[in-house]
């Protein structure tokens, strides 16, 4: 359980560590913690993934594809992505009761922003019949445990869940009166991946402590953070969205440097995450053919 | 002879049928039957269903004569008088501080249970009460000893020794309390120039080495929150020791001076930040286990 208190001596120690580039766990400023990634962890979803960074932050994401009506006034030829993030009250002391409402909203907004507009997913291909029906991807995330850097973990898990998602095939038939009708085909073999999931971004959060900045901060480090900059970058190195949070300010020159570095860090982690994702998919494929359902516990530290 | 504990049978087939060896650890998961013999009594962490004693937690089975208990691997800390604990001040209240010691409720540190700067044995005055935040404030880490228990189970702490008091110059590592055993000393100065305080409550303080003489020479510094100068080398040492402890914890190796030293030696061939990855931490834990058994 993480408590939201830190002593002045610890703060000074961590801040000095950031300046010297030697963090509490021996990492350099741009280093990420080791993480675990599993896919296909929820059987009744269209796709799911779980990511655990270090021995701390743990995020579970489930994606459900459902057909929905296109209401008048909405884009006539587009699907939708709907996100919801919730923090488990057992994850940390500050997640108790209503204290999480704001954080839940914040994370939901963040995820929605990251996945819409420049989020990579090809929403046009999610349309079924113009002005009538489209696919909606419901993305639900749960923060199960907390030790800092929720945003990055959330996007690693979400991207993995999207990669794991299969959307059932639909056949559209034209009726005689010019109307159209659709049929969802149950065959799992015919289901297709989410169009454009590869271009979904990952997030690099940089934490500014007043004299320097670090990536993948632990909870203790986040308590020393003056300002956080969340930069969502896709595999082409394009910045898709960004957000600054907490009250501190970042000097202008550093800000640009941070953006540049975030892109560099993303260029390093995206291929490794994708590689991990590929291995994980191969592993689950083997297990499914062997009659076993993937479980997260098979490769946790425990 | 009593019927063997069921859970032993699953583990090592060669030792099945013998529960006489008390050194043999039996690990159970919740809902796992432990024994069907009616002559055993159920203790903490177990319940009886259909005349079978069943484990209620994930942990290690302990048997004292006829009493069977399961000690949970991840439980909150339950204090005993005389334990050295590391805690964090959560609240400053009337003549007392509330301290988070990973227990079911916050421990209490009375103003009358600390050493005040200056006179060792002077009376606490009202002005001391007004200056409480200059001694300990919210968020501060303290090392203290358990003095007594209150009737509601809360722990009363004291820091009436130069060994105890405010912590600085280092970093906190949190581990399951079950991994820290009570021993003669909980303050260790490792040869690599790092001090380790093993709180029995699972909070471990890893810091730069400070001589006892220096502390005794500057008694007014015991309530200082300012770090000494820490060189990059010292900082790396602290990080290495902290990561060694984390690596051992991942594999449920008991944390004591020897295991930390062995882990430190085994860690030297790896970069510090890699020590907590699953591969290297298991290598280190295995090596330490081997050495400890010799």
UniProtKB/TrEMBL annotation, chain A:
* One GO BP: nuclear polyadenylation-dependent rRNA catabolic process
Q: Which family does it belong to?
A: Belongs to the RNase PH family.
Q: Record's superkingdom? A: Eukaryota
Q: What is this protein called?
A: Ribosomal RNA-processing protein 42
Molecular function (GO) terms for this protein are: mRNA 3'-UTR AU-rich region binding
Q: What is the organism of origin for this protein? A: Dimargaris verticillata
Q: Where in the cell is it found?
A: Cytoplasm; Nucleus, Nucleolus
**Gene3D superfamilies cross-referenced by the UniProt entry:** GHMP Kinase, N-terminal domain
Which N-terminal residues, if any, form the signal peptide? none
Q: Which CDD domains match?
A: RNase_PH_RRP42 (cd11367)
- Pfam families, A to Z: RNase_PH, RNase_PH_C
Which residues does the UniProt record annotate as the domain Exoribonuclease phosphorolytic?
A: 32-168, 200-264
List the GO terms this entry assigns under cellular component, sorted alphabetically: cytoplasmic exosome (RNase complex); nuclear exosome (RNase complex); nucleolus
Question: Entry's SUPFAM superfamilies?
Answer: Ribonuclease PH domain 2-like, Ribosomal protein S5 domain 2-like
Q: Which InterPro entries match?
A: ExoRNase_PH_dom1, ExoRNase_PH_dom2, ExoRNase_PH_dom2_sf, Exosome_comp_Rrp42_subfam, PNPase/RNase_PH_dom_sf, Ribosomal_Su5_D2-typ_SF
Keywords, A to Z?
Cytoplasm, Exosome
Automatic annotation (TrEMBL), chain B:
| CDD domains, A to Z | KH-I_Rrp4_eukar, S1_Rrp4
Give the GO molecular function terms.
RNA binding
**Which InterPro entries has this protein been placed in?**
Exosome_cplx_N_dom, Exosome_RNA_bind1/RRP40/RRP4, KH_dom_type_1, KH_dom_type_1_sf, NA-bd_OB-fold, S1_domain, S1_RRP4
Q: What is this protein called?
A: Exosome complex component rrp4
Biological process according to GO: CUT catabolic process; exonucleolytic trimming to generate mature 3'-end of 5.8S rRNA from tricistronic rRNA transcript (SSU-rRNA, 5.8S rRNA, LSU-rRNA); nuclear mRNA surveillance; nuclear polyadenylation-dependent rRNA catabolic process; poly(A)-dependent snoRNA 3'-end processing; TRAMP-dependent tRNA surveillance pathway; U4 snRNA 3'-end processing
Alphabetized, the UniProt keywords read: Exosome, Nucleus, RNA-binding, rRNA processing
Q: Give residue ranges for domain S1 motif.
A: 80-160
Q: Which family does it belong to?
A: Belongs to the RRP4 family.
Q: What is its main location?
A: nucleus
Region (Disordered) spans which residues?
Answer: 1-25
Against Gene3D superfamilies, the record matches this protein to: 2.40.50.100, Nucleic acid-binding proteins
Q: Where does the record place it? A: Nucleus
Q: Name one GO cellular component term.
A: nuclear exosome (RNase complex)
PANTHER family associated with the record: EXOSOME COMPLEX COMPONENT RRP4, PNAS-3 RELATED
């Amino acid at each position: 359980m993480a408590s939201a208190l830190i002593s002045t001596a610890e703060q000074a120690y961590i801040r000095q560590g950031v300046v010297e580039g030697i963090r509490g766990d021996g990492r350099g400023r741009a280093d990420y913690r080791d993480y675990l990634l599993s896919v296909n962890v929820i059987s009744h979803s269209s796709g799911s993934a779980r990511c655990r960074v270090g021995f701390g932050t743990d995020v579970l994401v489930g994606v459900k594809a459902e057909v929905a009506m296109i209401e008048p006034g909405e884009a006539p030829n587009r699907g939708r992505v709907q996100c919801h993030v919730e923090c488990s009250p057992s994850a940390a002391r500050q997640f108790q009761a209503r204290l999480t409402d704001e954080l839940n909203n914040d994370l939901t907004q963040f995820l929605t922003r990251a996945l819409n507009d420049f989020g990579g997913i090809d929403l046009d291909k999610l349309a079924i019949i113009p002005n009538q029906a489209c696919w909606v991807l419901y993305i639900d995330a749960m923060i199960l445990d907390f030790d800092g850097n929720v945003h990055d973990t959330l996007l690693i898990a979400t991207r993995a869940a999207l990669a794991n998602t299969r959307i059932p095939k639909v056949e559209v038939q034209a009726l005689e009166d010019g109307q159209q009708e659709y049929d969802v085909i149950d065959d799992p073999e015919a289901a297709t991946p989410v169009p454009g999931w590869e271009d979904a971004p990952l997030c690099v959060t940089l934490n500014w402590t007043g004299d320097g900045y670090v990536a993948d901060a632990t909870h203790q480090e986040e308590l020393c953070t003056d300002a956080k900059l969340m930069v969502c970058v896709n595999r082409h190195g394009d910045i898709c969205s960004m957000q600054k949070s907490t009250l501190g300010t970042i000097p202008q020159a550093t800000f640009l440097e941070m953006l540049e570095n975030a892109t560099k860090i993303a260029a390093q982690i995206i291929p490794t995450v994708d590689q991990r994702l590929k291995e994980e998919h191969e592993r689950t494929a083997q297990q499914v053919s062997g009659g076993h359902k993937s479980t997260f516990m098979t490769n946790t530290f425990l | 002879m009593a019927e063997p504990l069921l859970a032993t049978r699953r583990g090592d087939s060669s030792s099945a049928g013998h529960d006489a060896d008390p050194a043999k650890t039996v690990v159970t998961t919740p809902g796992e039957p432990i024994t069907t013999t009616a002559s055993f009594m159920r203790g903490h962490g177990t319940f009886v269903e259909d005349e079978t004693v069943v484990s209620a937690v994930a942990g290690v089975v302990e048997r004292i004569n006829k009493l069977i208990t399961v000690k949970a691997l991840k439980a909150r800390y339950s204090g005993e008088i005389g334990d050295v604990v590391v805690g964090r001040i959560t609240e400053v209240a009337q003549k007392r501080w509330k301290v988070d010691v990973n227990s079911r409720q916050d421990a209490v540190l009375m103003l009358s249970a600390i050493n005040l700067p200056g006179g060792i044995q002077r009376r606490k005055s009202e002005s001391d009460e007004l200056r409480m935040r200059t001694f300990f404030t919210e968020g501060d880490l303290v090392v203290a000893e358990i003095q007594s228990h209150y009737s509601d189970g809360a722990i009363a702490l004291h820091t009436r020794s130069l060994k105890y008091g405010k912590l600085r110059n280092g970093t906190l590592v949190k581990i399951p309390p079950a991994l820290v055993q009570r021993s003669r000393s909980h303050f260790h100065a490792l040869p690599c120039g790092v001090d380790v305080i093993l709180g029995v409550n699972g909070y471990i303080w890893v810091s730069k080495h400070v001589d006892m003489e220096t502390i005794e020479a500057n008694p007014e510094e015991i309530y200082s929150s300012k770090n000494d100068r820490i060189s990059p080398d010292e900082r790396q040492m602290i990080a290495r020791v902290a990561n060694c402890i984390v690596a051992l914890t991942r594999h449920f190796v008991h944390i004591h001076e020897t295991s930390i030293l062995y882990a430190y030696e085994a860690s030297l061939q790896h970069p510090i930040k890699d020590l907590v990855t699953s591969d290297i931490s298991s290598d280190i834990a295995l090596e330490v286990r081997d050495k400890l058994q010799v």
